[in-house]
């Protein structure tokens, strides 16, 4: 790969190119379940439905190709975080949230198990997740975060000082870190491609280049025909705002990434990172990174967070300032990489509900279902959502009873919509500008307390 690539959907497509597109829907038809969206959520749902009942007629309708959205663009942190857990604890009690957390811990293993069973390669390395602190305020937050995670039953999480952190990854200025084994690095596109092939092999029909223009009880409408089905499941995450009636449901937030050229052995010796942990930090405008299977660093953070009017992206093209800002984070973390070349930059959209809580729902009566609002933690959560949507469909149709999954506290959660424009745009722009200022202030002052600014931004955004 010569030169710098901007967009092209994502770096993860750089080797094999974008996939050949499957046939679009050929006309009106019927199914038992129709799924809108061929990302992890839609595909996992199809997978578990077919595994549970091979006779079910399941169709997936995808506007471009499977993995076009965040599932083909993410940072490849397959980990146990779920957006909204603390709120679910407040709403349904601590024990219910502990069950949710336990289900998420198990989900990481479930994804690894299925990938092995289906026999495809997704460059999985189960090295856990390491989150580092680089300022006194970040260290205080890290310690609180560590204790908080233990309170949800994570017995195997560890807290490291500066020296132990450096033994794992030599991040400049790192004063401590927290590590959980419940995480793995994956190649996002290998995962979504392998999963789509596995789903197809089970007998699910996948139609690509097939945008759904209306989702109604009992049918999904496309320019090529209408699919009638008792269950219509919306798995469109960051693209949801483009659907009629859903403009203010989940705010499409951008996240951007860069991938470096492959590092030399000398550069890796300076960085360490033998354990290939998913790597993050405790800044308000946090970063996330992985050591890729082909020896690069892929690193992400907030780009231009949100486009006015909930507009989504153009095949991942990323603004020059965002690329420069991410490169600056990379070199700040690893000064030995000051001369390293950025090979690729891209962006994608996440779905953010007004209360920042992921949900999975099947409406009784209408047969309409949906899952998403994962914010930045959807790689594993989409698998839990898929299994749960499967169980909810089987419960509703009388094929099965309640399961442990249908009783988890995120099932059926409702939240109010986002404010109309321009308030929404102003609010999100303001929130991210505030996070950046809070990070700068914490670095400059070496204060151990989290900046009050960040706490205000959290409140304005509805995060607490
Ligand atoms: C840059 C970036 C980095 C991220 N990093 C991580 C990470 O490291 N770890 C983590 O846990 N999470 C991460 N996430 C979030 C994670 O990738 C997502 O939460 C997850 O992939 C969501 O899967 P999904 O199937 O619900 O949505 P998507 O993958 O977005 O899939 C939705 C699909 O629906 C299709 N679609 C939309 N509208 C229609 C329509 N009208 N008709 C037909 N099809 C339609 C889209 O084309 C798309 O393929 C990241 C996200 C981004 C953008």
UniProtKB/TrEMBL annotation:
<keyword id="KW-0560">Oxidoreductase</keyword>
<dbReference type="InterPro" id="IPR006076">
    <property type="entry name" value="FAD-dep_OxRdtase"/>
</dbReference>
<feature type="domain" description="FAD dependent oxidoreductase">
    <location>
        <begin position="32"/>
        <end position="392"/>
    </location>
</feature>
<dbReference type="InterPro" id="IPR036188">
    <property type="entry name" value="FAD/NAD-bd_sf"/>
</dbReference>
<dbReference type="Pfam" id="PF01266">
    <property type="entry name" value="DAO"/>
</dbReference>
<protein>
    <submittedName>
        <fullName>NAD(P)/FAD-dependent oxidoreductase</fullName>
        <ecNumber>1.-.-.-</ecNumber>
    </submittedName>
</protein>
<dbReference type="GO" id="GO:0016491">
    <property type="term" value="F:oxidoreductase activity"/>
</dbReference>
């Amino acid at each position: 790969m010569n030169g710098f690539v901007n967009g092209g959907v994502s770096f993860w497509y750089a080797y094999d190119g974008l996939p050949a597109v499957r046939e679009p829907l050929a006309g009106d038809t019927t199914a038992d379940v129709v799924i809108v969206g061929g990302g992890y959520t839609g595909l996992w749902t199809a997978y578990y439905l077919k595994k549970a009942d091979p006779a079910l007629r399941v169709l997936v309708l995808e506007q471009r190709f499977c993995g076009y959205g965040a599932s083909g663009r993410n940072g490849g942190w397959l980990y146990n975080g779920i957006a909204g857990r603390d709120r679910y604890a407040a709403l349904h009690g601590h024990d219910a949230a502990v069950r949710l957390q336990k289900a998420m811990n198990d989900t990481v293993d479930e994804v690894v198990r299925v990938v092995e069973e289906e026999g495809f390669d997704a460059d999985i390395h189960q090295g856990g997740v390491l989150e580092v602190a680089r300022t006194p305020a970040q260290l205080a937050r890290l310690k609180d975060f560590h204790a908080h995670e233990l309170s949800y039953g994570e017995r195997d999480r560890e807290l490291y000082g500066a020296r132990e952190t450096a033994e794992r990854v030599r991040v400049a200025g790192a004063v401590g870190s927290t590590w959980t084994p419940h995480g793995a690095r994956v190649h996002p596109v290998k995962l979504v491609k392998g999963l789509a092939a596995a789903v197809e092999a089970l007998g699910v029909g996948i139609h690509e280049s097939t945008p759904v223009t209306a989702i109604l009880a009992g049918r999904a409408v496309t320019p090529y025909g209408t699919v009638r089905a008792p269950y219509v499941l919306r798995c469109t995450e960051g693209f949801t705002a483009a659907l009629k009636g859903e403009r203010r449901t989940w705010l499409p937030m951008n996240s951007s990434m860069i991938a470096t050229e492959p590092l030399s052995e000398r550069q890796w010796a300076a960085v360490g990172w033998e354990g290939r942990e998913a790597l993050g930090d405790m800044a308000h405008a946090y970063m996330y990174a992985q050591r890729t299977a082909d020896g690069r660093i892929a690193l992400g953070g907030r780009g231009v967070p949100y486009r006015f009017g909930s507009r989504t992206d153009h095949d991942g093209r990323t603004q020059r300032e965002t690329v420069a800002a991410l490169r600056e984070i990379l070199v700040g973390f690893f000064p030995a990489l000051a001369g390293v070349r950025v090979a690729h930059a891209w962006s994608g959209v996440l779905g953010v509900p007004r209360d920042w809580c992921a949900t999975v729902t099947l409406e009784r009566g209408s047969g309409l279902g949906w899952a998403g609002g994962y914010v930045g933690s959807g790689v594993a959560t989409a698998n839990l959502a898929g299994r749960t949507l499967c169980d909810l469909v089987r419960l509703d149709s009388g094929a099965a009873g309640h399961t442990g999954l249908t009783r988890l506290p995120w099932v059926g959660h409702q939240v109010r919509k986002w404010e109309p424009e321009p308030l929404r745009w102003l609010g999100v722009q303001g929130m991210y500008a505030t996070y950046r200022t809070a990070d700068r202030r914490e670095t400059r002052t070496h204060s151990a307390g989290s900046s009050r600014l960040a706490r205000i931004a959290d409140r304005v955004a509805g995060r607490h």
